[in-house]
Amino acid sequence: AVYMPSGTMTNQVAIRTHTEPGDEILLEQSAHVYFNEAGATAALSGAICRLIPGDRGVFGAEDMEAAIRPVNDHYPRTKLVCVENTANRGGGKVWPLEKLAEVKKTAHENGLKIHLDGARIWNAAAAMNIPESEIAKHFDSVSVCFSKGLGAPVGSALAGSSDFIMEARRFRKQFGGGMRQAGIIAAGALYALENNRERLTVDHDNAKIFAKGLAEINGIDVNPDDVETNIINFRVQGMTIDELIEKLNKQGTHVLPKDSITIRAVTNLMVSESQINIALDHVRNAMKS
Fold first, then answer.
1. pLDDT tens digits for range 108-133
2. Domains along the chain?
3. DSSP assignments along 219-287, one per residue
4. Whole-prediction pTM value?
């Protein structure tokens, strides 16, 4: 594996290592790689994205296979499949293991490599009560993040075969991610990895408490059954999301817009169950005002 400053860099170095300019990658239509990485696949790798419709970030092998280009000089070459688990914009949805196995089998049968954006692989493993290796074994490369749920100040890693990582180190250097004095920040990542994984289910429980509480507030639209890990997406009626966010900020509860109509809240190791209940009070107050 190789350590890098961010998950965006680990994803983009993986894509550059797997592809050549003009190649095409397949990914779900709301994937972080496509939606939240500043067009880096085109800018840094010269690769283009072909989007697969999915269910909250999850797609099936049949839909993926239908998107693979036939061999033809007029077409870009389909080279790589990217999967995100858990799916950020899908509200922390977890990929079922049988879906991963199907996608891997179909990808490899068609000569494609498969990369995991596993920024939240720790949450997926915790939700299913399995080792992370049971998820990672389905992929040719895996990106993981040590901040977010694990709580490290900074850092991600890209894992793969020794030959893959040797080439990835070259692209990390080209992208400006080589660090001689990485130990001080890697130490925080190591601490998070060794101490903060078992408590992730606490975040999941708090997210469910928050979602169930939101569902009882008039004017809030949320489905608690969609909350599988630590992300809650909800909508509001009677005011804009910007108005609600401002009212919550003034009370000390901080959330972010997912898009123009949806608010995203994320539980983490800095949020206790008692604070979840305070946040629900803040939402109630905001919706009444």
1. 999 999 999 999 999 999 999 999 99
2. 2-195 (3.40.640.10), 200-288 (3.90.1150.10)
3. TEE--GGG-SSSEEEEEESSS-HHHHHHHHHHHT---EESSSS-EEEE--TT--HHHHHHHHHHHHHHH
4. 0.95
